[in-house]
Design a protein that fits this description.
This protein is α+β, with helices and mostly antiparallel strands. The chain has one domain: 3-Layer(aba) Sandwich (NADH Oxidase), CATH 3.40.109.10. 44% of the residues lie in helices and 11% in strands. The chain has helices at 7-19, 35-45, 65-88, 96-114, 134-157, 172-179; strands at 58-62, 120-127, 160-162, 185-187, 191-195. Strands 1, 2, 3, 4 and 5 form a five-stranded antiparallel beta sheet that branches. Helix 2 packs across helix 5 (134-157), helix 3 runs antiparallel to helix 4 (96-114) and helix 3 runs antiparallel to helix 6 (172-179). It is globular and about 55 Å long. The two termini are 33 Å apart.
């Protein structure tokens, strides 16, 4: 019989989940990340659920400076396009996302400026990405993204900062050439990995769950 979680387990788990931030500015660009740590995190990540237990994902760990520079150049081009959308984004008065928007944009710009200097990049890859087949695409992503998030949580517990980026998908074929992916495989994210500076992270302000959750049908409030 598998023992149930204790109250202490819940506290530790909730703290890990609520304080694992997207780290951009606080990535330590001067300190190498041992490959054994990345392998440990991937070993944890592979315990994540995967569709049909088929383990579709493959992973590329990029540490070569020339490879990092080529990926960073692609990322910067994509960011320059995406930033126009970010700069135009507006929220209603009092929405916490409005206060957070400019710091996030500045942080993302910092990452775009320094991505080539990040010690390691993790690139999850999957076969058969099909934008014209929502079911297949969702099934593949539902297999790889939980594992990617598990990697990020495992990294956080080992003093490593990460952030999940998808801008390079704007240039998916170019990335495939850089990574020398076999036919039929696509990358689905780039995850910068580095030790983080500072000592800790805190929860941030989010929209209350009740304001974005409905019961049974759209716009029916969650009772209780």
């Amino acid at each position: 019989m598998v023992p149930s979680m204790t109250d202490d387990d819940v506290v530790v788990t909730d703290r890990l989940l609520t304080t694992t931030r997207s780290v951009r500015r606080r990535l330590d660009l001067t300190r190498p990340v041992p490959l054994y740590l990345i392998e440990q995190c991937l070993t944890v990540a592979m315990q994540a659920p995967t569709g049909g237990k088929l383990q579709f994902w493959r992973w590329i760990v990029v540490t070569d400076p020339d490879q990092r520079a080529r990926i960073a150049e692609v990322y910067a081009r994509a960011w320059n396009v995406y930033r126009q959308t970010a700069d135009a984004q507006q929220y209603r008065d009092g929405d916490p996302r409005q206060r957070q928007l400019q710091p996030v944009v500045d942080s993302a710009q910092h990452l775009a400026d320094h991505l080539a200097d990040v010690p390691a990049l993790l690139v999850p890859c999957i076969p058969g990405l099909a934008p014209d087949n929502p079911f297949l695409t969702a099934t593949l992503l539902a297999s790889v993204l939980p594992a990617t998030w598990s990697f990020m949580l495992a990294a956080r517990s080992r003093g490593l900062g990460t952030t999940l980026t998808t801008l390079t998908l704007m240039h998916e074929r170019e990335m495939a050439a850089i990574l020398e992916l076999p036919d039929g495989f696509s990358h689905c994210a780039v995850v910068p990995v580095a030790y983080y500076t500072g000592t800790t992270f805190q929860p941030v302000e989010r929209l209350p769950a009740r304001t974005v959750t409905y019961l049974d049908r759209w716009h029916q409030a969650l009772a209780g």
